Amino acid sequence: MLPYLLLMFAATFFSAISQVLLKQSAGRTYKSVIYEYLNWRVIVAYGISFSVLLLNTYAYTVVPMKYGAVIDTFTYVFVMGLSYLILKEHFTRGQLIGNLIIIAGVLVYTL
Asked: Which residues are within 8 A (CB) of 96 and not within 5 positions of it... i.e. 6 or more apart?
């Protein structure tokens, strides 16, 4: 079961990458409305999202739902970290506390 859990964890990370790509795309201006949807960031982000959906569906054939829900919460942590590193966004004290609560909750649940 461990390889499937790791697969789900990696999929969560890639899901965060797709969200950052969509945020980057939303922050740009385009010469036409069609280019807002047909640019490389949006296409790659939705491709990643679709791949994550397939990976999670495959992993859920072995992993119980109770573990998958816990792993999925790490998306918030990854998005905050990637937003800080890639988008140079600063997070608030509340966001930091919220992410620490998520991590603490995962640790309490798994231990």
From this structure: 80
